[in-house]
Amino acid sequence: RKGRASPGVDLSYPMLYSWLHLIALTVYLGAIAGFWLMLLPSVAAMETHKDRIQLLARGLKFYNPLQIGALGVILFTGAFQLTELKAIYRERFIQQFGETLVVKLAFVFVLVIFSVYQALGVGHRFVRRYEAGEDVSADQLSSIIQRLKGANWGILILAAITLWLGIRMRA
């Protein structure tokens, strides 16, 4: 299957999926690292409670869709690449990739749960509370930040394992 990138240039879909996968992975890992290294320290550096709430809400409003969107692209491009591999390897697919793929998909499943929990279960709910004008006490804000941090640690660990398994499959 070939598509046309521009007149006279053939672009294979598997190559496009690989590039999209790599770009989305970079965006996803960058978002996770940026959350930990930029947003949370910036929130902690704010002088007033109101400023901390406002900065966290604004940061999460950008971070949540970026993280979930990049993860969605990673999942779909990964699935498209697996479809191509199954077509190439046919009956040898399970022998070549089966064990590693099952383990990787299990970690991916848990990674998706952690990411959705962080972005939608904690982050989005906090943003909606902020936008509705609800009060958030210092204790509640601290609890929200702790849950975001805990989920982020899980995401970092699961993403590292999943990335290592993906590299192992390509080797």
Please outline what is shown here.
With 171 residues, this protein is mainly alpha-helical.
Features:
171 residues; mainly alpha; two-stranded antiparallel sheet; 4 helices; 85% helix
Question: What would you say this structure looks like, in words?
Answer:
The chain is mainly α. Helices cover 85% and strands 5% of the residues. Helix 1 runs antiparallel to helix 2 (49-89), helix 2 packs antiparallel against helix 3 (93-131) and helix 3 (93-131) packs antiparallel against helix 4 (138-170). The longest helix has 41 residues, at 49-89.
Mean pLDDT: 90
> Quick one: how many beta strands?
2
Enumerate the spans where pLDDT stays under 50 for 5 or more consecutive residues. none
Shape: elongated
Strand content: 5-15%
Give the fraction of residues assigned to helices.
over 70%
List the helices and strands and how they pair.
Layout: E1 2-6, E2 9-12, H1 13-45, H2 49-89, H3 93-131, H4 138-170
Helix pairs in contact: 1-2, 1-4, 2-3, 3-4
